[in-house]
Structure formats: structure tokens, C-alpha cells
Design a protein that fits this description.
Collagenase (Catalytic Domain); single chain; about 140 residues; endonuclease; MetalPrtase_cat_dom_sf_prd
């Protein structure tokens, strides 16, 4: 089950039900069943604190994904924190709508839980390709 929460921001995800169906279908297409997945929308400052406390990183980011599964083949379980400030800023810089950029970030976090990385150049290229593929499949 996918749930959406707000931490320190007042954010309403457009087309929430469609997004849940889309994300569940995309995970299924990748061969994964959906367990409990929580998306937490928050501010830059909130996510910076999460980044500092849990990852020892001292910089802003748009997303942090925590995999809560015991085993990799368990149904997807995780917490994905998204800075709505960063998403809005990235959308403006990239010249895309905030809704499209939010979909990219929603997909990005779930792709990590499906086993995709983005640290190596080839992995990042594949991640971007998968994000584009998923965005094109939005219901």
C-alpha cells in the first residue's frame, strides 16, 4: 500500500489515486510486489536534517530513499522523503512543470527500491531512461 504524508509542508499531490496506481503498476512491471511504501513530502530544511542525521551528508537533495525490507525479494517496503522545495526549484531549472518533475522524483525513489542505482555513470544513464519510461506510462 502506498501512502502520502506531509511533514512540515502543506502539499497536495495532484492525481493522488492515479499516482498510486501508476507506481504500483510500474513496480509490478519491474517484478516487484508492493508492501508498505510511504512518501513523505517535506521542506529543504527538513530533508537536510534527515540527510545529516541518517547519511552524514551535509547538503540539500530532492529525495532520500530508505529501504525497509529484510530481504531484497520481499515486497517493497520503504520510506521516501521528498523535498517539495527542491522539486519546484529543479522543475524551474529544467523547464518542466512541477507535476512532471514530481513524477520523476516519485519514480526515482521507487526505482531505487526496485534495485536501480545512480552513482556510476552507466547506472545514472539507465536510471534516467527508466524515469522517462515510467513518466511516459503515467495513466
Amino acid at each position: 500500500m502506498i501512502r502520502f504524508f506531509n511533514e512540515d509542508v502543506d502539499y497536495k499531490l495532484p492525481q493522488k489515486l492515479a499516482a498510486k496506481k501508476w507506481l504500483t503498476a510500474q513496480a509490478k512491471a519491474e517484478g516487484h510486489d508492493m508492501g508498505d511504501l510511504n512518501y513523505v513530502f517535506c521542506s529543504d530544511e527538513y530533508l537536510l536534517q534527515v540527510n545529516r542525521e541518517h547519511l552524514d551528508h551535509d547538503y540539500y537533495t530532492d529525495i532520500i530513499t530508505f529501504d525497509n525490507r529484510e530481504f531484497a525479494d520481499d515486497p517493497i517496503e520503504g520510506d521516501i522523503f521528498i523535498s517539495v522545495d527542491r522539486v519546484a526549484d529543479n522543475a524551474a531549472q529544467l523547464g518542466v512543470s512541477p507535476e512532471q518533475e514530481m513524477r520523476r522524483v516519485l519514480a526515482h525513489g521507487l526505482l531505487h527500491l526496485c534495485g536501480y542505482g545512480d552513482k556510476a555513470p552507466d547506472d545514472e544513464k539507465l536510471m534516467r531512461s527508466k524515469e522517462d519510461e515510467w513518466i511516459a506510462a503515467f495513466l
